[in-house]
Amino acid sequence: xxxxxxxTTGGLRHAEMDRELGCAQRTHPGEAGRKALRDLxxxxxxxxxxxxxxxxxxxxxxxxxxxxxxxIKNGIEQVADQRKGQHESSQVSRPGLKLTATQ
Length: 103
Hints:
The structure is a single chain. The protein is an all-alpha fold. It has three helices and no strands. The protein has helices spanning 14-21, 29-74, 76-93. Helix 2 packs across helix 3 (76-93). The longest helix has 46 residues, at 29-74. The mean pLDDT is 80.
């Protein structure tokens, strides 16, 4: 082996290897750490979003199941009347927004 050859790369130095492999520049460890941290935060956000979506999905099926059980127990007419009354009372207790001109 010649004196200027690198023992593990067969004579190529790091800069030569980068050119051979098409690497423009090596990344600084701090940059790599910041990128890894950003990627981890994104993964965490996506995981939390999947949990929220799953909770909403479960709530939907819980409500559907409760409705079906109530219909089987009491009949559709009574359940519909009861829900209609709840809907009307919630409309009264929650009046719409009134827009006023700001000065």
